[in-house]
Amino acid sequence: MSRPIKLVSGSAQTAPASAPFAVEPAAHAPKGAAMRELAYNEIKRRIMACEFRPGEPLNEAQLGALLGLGRTPIHQALHRLEVEGLVQILPRKGVLVTPLSLNDVLDMIEVRATNEILCVTLAAERAHPADFEAMRAIVDASPALIEHRDIAALAALDLKFHLAISAASRNRVLAELLRGLHEKQARFWFLSLSEPQHLQNVYDEHLAVLDALERRDVPAAREAIREHIDEFRRTIIRTL
Length: 240
Fold this sequence. Notes:
The chain is mainly alpha-helical. It has 10 helices and 5 strands. The radius of gyration is 19 Å and the shape is elongated.
């Protein structure tokens, strides 16, 4: 059976609007489809950043007041998030943020490892010089954020780095698959931050992957991404 995971107080920092999946509120109240999209993106961002904690009940009226939106777009957003597995809508009980399971994340890591290895293989063969420049700029932005422990910005940067590798693979199906896996794992990324060395390790691992890609060294790139994912697995198991 899956082991439900409780969020330990202080294990993740609250993410500001700069976090991944963030959407800035409009200056004037949006209409129709824009309200639905705003509700969806804002609730999803807060779930991903563990602002809405695993297992926490969500109230449509309170969400509407928090986001300055009516109940209809909130209701529609919650049903969309239920399809994605981020919330559970229970009869006579209301809405809950889907609890986290160690078994679930280990299953996702297993699938991710196979596909990330394929992705770096293709990227080493197909990447353009501009792809490497974009990846280098992303990695170079990390040290200052690590120094200030800007967790939200680092989470966004981590996603951006992996999406850049996916883009360099020139395989859109693979890129979409990996984007979905990274989004599903985002909450575990925040939970892993209780380890002080974790952020520096991620930076070092990104450097190793990028150095191998720039050399177009396929075996080294495959080994670097495998170690990166294995370290994430080990960190999650230690943390949880």
